Amino acid sequence: MSIDSFLIPQKELDLESWRLNYPLDALLMINTRCVTDCVYCYADRQLDIDCKIPINRLTEFIREAGELGMRSFDITGGEFFRYKHWETLLQELLANGFSPYISTKFPIDPETIIKLKDFGLKKIQVSIDSIVKGELMQMLDVPENYLNKLLETLHCLDDNGFEIHTNTQLTKYNQDNIDGLLDFLLTLKNIKRVVIGTAGFSFNNLLFAHRRQR
C-alpha cells in the first residue's frame, strides 16, 4: 500500500466543519430470536422481538448509507438466519458496498451456503463451544443432532472457500475439552480467526439464582 492511499484529495478537504454531518457506522438489531438457549447468555431470553421496520424501509436506509459513504452497516441479534427477510437484507448490504459481519449458531444447510456464496459473502463467524455432544446439550439446550449439523456446516463453508471465524465461550461445562475443539478447528483450511472468551455473570444467571431461592 502506497502513501497515496492515505492522502485526501484537496477538493474533498473540509476545514470548516467541526463535526461529522452524517453517521460513520450503523448497527441494526434484527431480532432477539435464537436457535439455542445458552446458559451464559447475557440477554433477556424472555423477550421475543422481531424488527418492526418494514424491509422496504430498511433497504432505503442501506441505500442512503451507501450514498453517504458510511464506513459500515452491521447486523446484530438474535440470530441472523431467523430473520424472515435475511436474504433481501444481505443482498442489499452487499450491493451497496458493505461487508456485514454475520455471526451465527445456526446449522446452515448446503443449499443456503451456496446461496450465500452466490450473493458474494466472503466470511462468516460460527459460534461453537464444544465438539462434545453432551456438553453442547447441557450448555445450549440443543437436540442431539445439533453438533453433527454444526460440524457439517463448518466443513461445507470450508469446502466453499469461506473465510471462517469462530467464537467459543469457556465455562465449567466445556473447559476440559477445549484442546479437542482447537484440534478440530485447525483441520479447516480456511479457518482465519479463533476467539475464546470466558462467560461472565449474566442476566440469566441472576434469574436462575432468583428462581432457586424462591
In short:
This protein has one domain (23-213): Aldolase class I (TIM Barrel, Alpha-Beta Barrel), CATH 3.20.20.70.
Helix content: 25-40%
The CATH first-level class comes to Alpha Beta
Q: Any guess at the CATH architecture?
A: Alpha-Beta Barrel
Task: Give the class from helix and strand content and strand pairing.
Answer: alpha/beta
Number of helices: 7
Order of helices and strands: EHEHEHEHHEHEH
Gyration radius (Cα, Å) is 20 Å
How many domains in all? 1
By CATH's scheme, which homologous superfamily applies? Aldolase class I
Shape: globular
Unreliable parts? none
Distance separating the two termini: 62 Å
Total beta strand runs: 6
Beta strand %: 15-25%
Biggest pleated-sheet summary: 4 strands, parallel
Which fold name is given in CATH as the topology? TIM Barrel
Oligomer: single chain
- Mean of pLDDT: 90
Order of neighbouring strands in the sheet with most strands: 3-4-5-6
What can you tell me about this protein's structure?
With 214 residues, the protein is an alpha/beta fold. It has one domain (23-213): Alpha-Beta Barrel (TIM Barrel). The protein is 35% helix and 15% strand. The chain has seven helices and six strands, in the order βαβαβαβααβαβα. The protein has helices at 55-68, 86-95, 110-119, 133-140, 146-159, 178-185, 203-213; strands at residues 25-29, 72-76, 103-104, 123-127, 163-170, 191-198. The chain has a four-stranded parallel sheet, with helices on one face. A two-stranded parallel sheet has the order 1-2. Helix 3 links the parallel strand 3 and strand 4 (123-127). Helix 1 (55-68) runs parallel beside helix 2.
